[in-house]
Each structure stands twice: as structure tokens, then as C-alpha cells.
Amino acid sequence: MPQPEVRRSIKRSAVSDQQRRRELALLRQTQQRSDSQNRARRLASSVFTLSSSSSSDLILPDKGILTRAADSEEHEAHLDESVAPARELNVVQASKLKGREARQWFARQLMLPEWMIDIPPKLDRDWYVFARPAGNRCFVVSSNGTTISRLRNGSVLHHFPSSLPNGSRTRDSSGPASSYCVLDCIFHEPDQTYYVIDMVCWRDYSLYDCTAEFRFFWLNSKLAESGACNSPSTYHRYRFSVVPIYDCNQAGLHAAYSTSMPYTKDGLLFFNKHAHYQTGNTPLALVWKDNFCSQYFLDTDSQGLVPTQQQVVLEMQEDGKLTTSDDPPVEFGSLEVDFIQKSEFRAGNLLRFAIKDESVRVVDGKLEIGDLQFISKSNRARAFADSYSKVFFQYAARHSPLKIEDIAASILPNLPDDSPIVDVEMGS
Q: What structural domains and CATH numbers belong to the chain?
């Protein structure tokens, strides 16, 4: 895989923007405890309501797979004015969503990791690490005697019976018919297995406001008890499996990175032990990749090739500004009015750009892009623009990647709590 010749040293600040976001995220979750039970119930209901009400879905009974037809341009551009913004929908309103709005609603329900652009302090004490399975990220919801998996873009992946609580119509089903479970999974195509990376709700008990430490404990104990990890059968079409989760000390990092797994790896995931299940982008979960543990270290184009120039997908706002998917969004440029009108772009369109390498600067640890070259509209199935951390990670990956040796070097044993943050210079 050819690499650009330009190499640059990227020095991160002693306290980076990402670290500040981590501190704020931890502070917010202690100050604002949401109604997590209602949130979990709304998500579970919406999975089934959207599935049954959408005329653009086609169920194939023989394989239990449900696929979505291409959304019309009209659905992309317009939405019934009576429907509230997707972030605030109840189940009745969510059932009306089609196309991009449905994709955005479901994408917002997942906890999306930021890309690791700096190394968190106290990594060995406050964080878990595990090897991310390659495959499709999805929610799996069991309720009313059936199970549905829905991708992060809103489309249904599988509709099937399972051994999850209330996940199939069998005589030994336990619990009320209204009982439901919600799991955060990655479907690994080669072995037809759902690898569960988080537990959102179990038998009506919401875990949104529980720490990752507790969620992972319940995940490992409850999933095995349910029989969901058993081999497929008539009433259990797909196997579920947990992933090995390690404390992020030297031994745990080495195991996650180097140990052979029953699935294809796609990078490492780091979870803060104190983090609640926060929907949307969060710095309390981080993804990191290199060529050894991921086939997709550098982003590829539609042909599966690494482009010469880094490419980004940004969302066009009403005023022509081009922004990331972050909250608040980060602006990387803008389009002229004449170009917008000629191209018939609308606010909310996702547009793909190439970045001129010489136009990129890192100032005080922040990425600045001086020139964007328009390529095309993004794939319509996509729900969101790139995040700021992804753009930064991909830039660093091309010029001065954060290496596994850097992460390992930051894990120093037996340090007191007031030890200074170890600053790592990412060099070639």
C-alpha cells in the first residue's frame, strides 16, 4: 500500500482538545442523569415500528433478511413538516421517517467512538481495550417473540428468532410479551456471528446510565445464561458471542493487539471504565488502527483503493459552510453560492472532498485545512459526515501515525495519581 513521501512530526498539546472533551463528558454524565428507561423503550419500539410501517422494506422469509430499496430523491430532500427533528422524536414520529432522516435517527442511537488522536492519561487504570471485530455495526433488539438487527444507517440487516429474552416464539419463552433487550453488536459475516460489544438494555432494565465496567460485567454473565452463545438452531438462527475485554495495562494491550481472535480484527477499541452509554460521538470511547490489526488503516475509495490524497465527507449547512458530524460541528471550509446553485445542492447534503496535502496545518494541536477539492456527493446510504477526530487520525496516519509502541510507552506501572501526563511525539 503506497504511502506519501511527506512525513511530518505532530506534537500534541499537554492537555489536548480530545482530553478536554473527555473531562467534560465525564462531568456532564454526573450532572445530567437522563430518563434512560424511557430512552431504551423508545429505541426498542422504534426498531419494530419502523420495520413494520416502512413500505420500502422487503422481508425475505426463507432467509429472514430484510433489505431496503433505494430511497427516492424526494425522501432525501423533503420530510413531512409535522415530524419533529430526529433527535427529539417519539415512537409515533419515528415511524414516519424515511430515507436519510431514518438513517440519522438510528445513527444517533449508537455510542460512536472518536478516533484516538492523543493518548488518554491513566490508560492502564481507567480504560479497557479489546480487538474490534470487522463487520457491520448494528443494534440487535429482541421483543414480542422475534429479533431484529438494524444497521447504523437505519436499514434492517436481519429479522430472525434468537435465544435472547423474548427473542423467539417458543414454549419456554420467559418474561412478559412486552419485555425487550437491546444489544450493541458487530455482525461478522465470515462466521455469521453477532459479536456483542456493549449491552444497552436487558429484560427491560436500562443500562444507559451504568458505567462501562458494570455493563461489561452484565454482558459477560447475562448473555451466556440466555443461551444466545449456543450454536444456531431452529429458534436461534445466529450465534452471539462476547469479545475478550482487557484492562488496558501492558499485558492487556499486548493481548488485544497480538493475540489471534476467532474473528477478523478491525483495529482496537478503548472504553473508559466510568463512561455511561452516551449516544453519538464520544471521547470516552476511542478507536485506533494500524496496518497490523486492520485491513482499513487508511480510508479507501469506492474501488477499495487508497487514494493519493486524503478524502473527507462533510455536511453542507444552509450558509454553505462545510462541517463535521461533531456536536458542535467543526467547520473545514465553505462553498460559493454560485457553485451551490449550479450543483443543486441542499443543506444537509453530504459531500466528498480531497484535501491538498500542502494546505493542511496543525496549529496548537488543532487541524486546519486550507483547500478542499470537490469530488462528488457521498453515497446516499451514508448517515453522517466524518468526525473531526477521524479526519485528524487519517491525516496523522498518512504522515506521522500514532503507533502501538507510543501507546505501550504511555502505560507506566505504579505511578501515583498526581503523575504528569506523558507527552508523546508522533514521528515516522
A: 107-288 (3.30.470.30), 298-408 (2.40.50.140)
